[in-house]
Amino acid sequence: MSSGLPKAVLYYHPKSIWSSVARLAVEEKGYAADEIDFKIVDITKGENYDPTFLRLNPKATVPTLVVPLSNTLSEDVDSRYKALIDSTTIVEFLDKSRSSLSRTHTTSTAPAPALTPATIAATNIAKTIIYDIIHSDEASPGKLKFYDARDEAGLKKLKQAVLPMLQGRAEALRKHIADGESGAVQVSEKTKQFWASKLAWIEPIAKVLEAADTPTESLSESGKEERAAFFKVAKQAWETDLPNVLAKLTKEILGPFALGRVGGCTAGDQLSIADMHLIAWFTRLVTQAGGTASDDGKTVIAKIEEYVGSEHISRKRLGKLGTFWDAIKGVRSWQKIYGEGVF
């Protein structure tokens, strides 16, 4: 690729679950290293709330893929760009933009397998897995991450794991809010309200975690109520919502990957667009349950059952997900993203 041609830029964070979806797709589609620039946005420090980044993505999320418009792909033309701001749209774009039939402006000779399902039936299954299950409120990885404690011992562990991140984000938001109010930066009222809403979500969680080392009986009455409310949300997420999500996934996935043979391949072992999302989401769950990259499918399912509670889920009903785990561990893109450790 000529160095003068504009390139796409993927803004991401290395440990972001949805960033991993986009990175998996980049690897699976065989994009060359010089075709996409990768820029890290440190979401642990709230860099995604910076006014500069908000001009690219007003939702302040990663991944964000900024792509040059096709009719401006010339060294002689000032390129115009558009930003794709969610993982579903980004993966669809990456899949369509490189195939065995379209090799414009590419330097890669790697295969470009189609991730989009080949049949209507498979497309419907993929949509169900992606939109109705993985990206549902029930399956929210943010809720599962920041409410990953259902007792005092778990609360202490969670404090060590996520409080520094929450404090970093809150600090950044407070600064932006102050700068906006003082006029140090010129932003809209909508942006100010956005910052305030994000801070309002973070502060109650951070407050509970900051008091994690204090026994419940030693808390003030308001502290007790805040901790009880936190545990209520956590138990709903882990003991009701997550089991529902796992049951739905077990019903939908065909094996060994999400769409199996219905995806259009002859051996039932080709990755699809649904797998990009499911791989990242399930790998995060395995990590939270104490699983490692070296664990086999039966082991990770047993760990998930133990972590969530056998009274809420049963490993006997999650066999497809164990098979799925064994399959994705052999995938090159999974090894590239998670080879040095799952997250």
Explain the overall architecture.
33% of the residues are buried. This protein has a four-stranded mixed sheet. By secondary structure, it is mainly α. It contains twelve helices and four strands; from the N terminus they run βαβαββαααααααααα. Helix 4 runs parallel beside helix 9, helix 6 runs antiparallel to helix 7 and helix 10 crosses helix 11. Helix content is 52%, strand content 6%. The longest helix is centred in the last third of the chain and has 32 residues.
Structure class: mainly alpha
- Helices, by number, come to 12
Q: Could you give the order of strands across the largest sheet?
A: 2-1-3-4
Distance between the termini: 33 Å
**Topology pattern, helix = H, strand = E:** EHEHEEHHHHHHHHHH
Number of strands: 4
Principal-axis shape: flat
- Please compute the radius of gyration using only Cα atoms: 22 Å
Please tag this protein with its features:
343 residues, mainly alpha, 4 strands, 52% helix
Helix and strand layout, with pairings?
Blueprint: E1 8-12, H1 17-28, E2 36-40, H2 51-56, E3 64-68, E4 81-84, H3 87-97, H4 120-134, H5 141-146, H6 152-182, H7 189-210, H8 221-252, H9 273-288, H10 297-308, H11 319-328, H12 332-338
Parallel strand pairs: 1-2
Antiparallel strand pairs: 1-3, 3-4
